[in-house]
Amino acid sequence: MYDLERVLQTVKKHNAGEKEFHQAVREVYEDILPYIADKPRYEKAAILERLTEPDRIIRFRVTWMDDNKKIHVNRAWRVQFNNSIGPYKGGLRFHPSVNAGILKFLGFEQTFKNALTSLPIGGAKGGSDFNPKGKSDSEIFRFCHSLMDELQRYIGEDTDIPAGDIGVGKREISYLFGQYKKLTNRFTGTITGKDINFGGSLIRTEATGYGLIYFVQNMLEEFDDDLEEKEVSISGSGNVALYACQKAMDLGAKVVTLSDSDGTIYDKEGIDREKFEFVKELKEVKYGRIKEYADEFSCEYLEGETPWSIPCDIALPCATQNEVDLSSAKTLLKNGLMLLAEGANMPCSADATRLLRDSDVLYAPGKASNAGGVAVSGLEISQNELRMSWSAEEVNDRLQSIMKEIHKKCKEHGEDDDGNIDYMKGANIAGFKKVADAMLAFGPV
Ligand SMILES: NC(=O)C1=CN([C@@H]2O[C@H](COP(=O)(O)OP(=O)(O)OC[C@H]3O[C@@H](n4cnc5c(N)ncnc54)[C@H](OP(=O)(O)O)[C@@H]3O)[C@@H](O)[C@H]2O)C=CC1
Ligand SMILES: O=C(O)CCC(=O)C(=O)O
Q1: What is the ipTM of this complex?
Q2: What is the pTM of this model?
Q3: Where is the Glutamate/phenylalanine/leucine/valine/L-tryptophan dehydrogenase C-terminal domain (predicted)?
Q4: I need a labelling partner for 109 at 20 to 30 A (CA). Which of 21, 260, 275, 320 fits?
């Protein structure tokens, strides 16, 4: 019979030093082993071993020229993790911390997240250790073109469909898609997150943040509660954070923080429409720093700090992995936290996650609560295949019902006899079941 520590030892040996990947595998397999204990078919087909080995990892060099004509060399990867239920699908990340281990953890998580959406999409992730910060527009353009010169060999509308992630927004997707189209001489839906003028879906930009809040709504509805007047702390001020903030405000919550890697703004009055438009322009158009919000609206700025010392009812980590450590989780609990839902991928460290799961706060893992982004990417693929564009209302309705369904699946597999829902357990089992059963159906190899 599978033994958790033995399985994890093998994963560590085969993936030495990749601590985020080890963490992600442990988080899933802790729930899966008890679930499959009386189902020997999974062990017989070596499903756990197969699920931790990506189908393939492509690594390549990206050479590009800066504005001073200096040549730079970066590394890029595409981790095609698992295509059992559909073509590989997942974002591209541009950040200096990117390496194969980080992308493997993200691709592993993506595989189960995509399964939860009920759409036919497999799991992948990619990116580069390129740092977009401080680069000119023409440098970003040249980097994106150079990356696509190589990446185009491995992707396609039925093979692997990338999208954005940290450091890759509308601008980068446009440059990547433009070059892909040129190189292949085909107009296909191979990349999602495209602009609406050339095959993008309405609501894709907003989808991860909106989906996160829809998921939170579903969690609160279990207790006949809602977001009205809840004090919400959000980290990050990128794509996920901004639209989580907007939807939370729309539903009557008071959002008091946003952050970036330099610090946190604490706006005790709450972010309103005018302030939101300012920060949206600051981040999406001017690529500015969050401190400028504090300067503009004279609120508190916590230099070099995360938002987690600030009391709130609901915490939404929307920046990056392991941004909520054990001591932050303890502080949040001490300050009266009632719910934490992950907008980022694995933003809570392993010990913080354990503490939250063992406490009586509501806790949602990213693979469930941030699945709205990839879900609308899936809807973008459908629209591209149909050569149609659905209205914002139609996409938003579908997003809401996908998030509701994910919540239902978490409940189905995560609810105990007392009616408490372990969302992590529910998401892990539901995601695993779909992918693993497809693998079983294909036979032993
Ligand atoms: N975009 C999407 O559709 C989806 C994204 N996600 C996940 O959500 C998270 C955020 O992604 P997204 O909003 O797209 O990315 P963006 O690049 O748009 O924004 C990222 C934000 O997080 C901050 N941040 C990034 N790295 C760090 C760090 N090491 N320490 C502190 N702050 C940091 C950034 O600050 P700064 O600018 O200073 O670096 C920025 O404010 C990621 O975990 C991503 O994987 C999950 C599902 C879908
Ligand atoms: O839209 C996509 O394909 C990917 C979104 C993503 O990267 C994620 O869900 O983490």
Answers
A1: 0.99
A2: 0.98
A3: 201-443
A4: 260
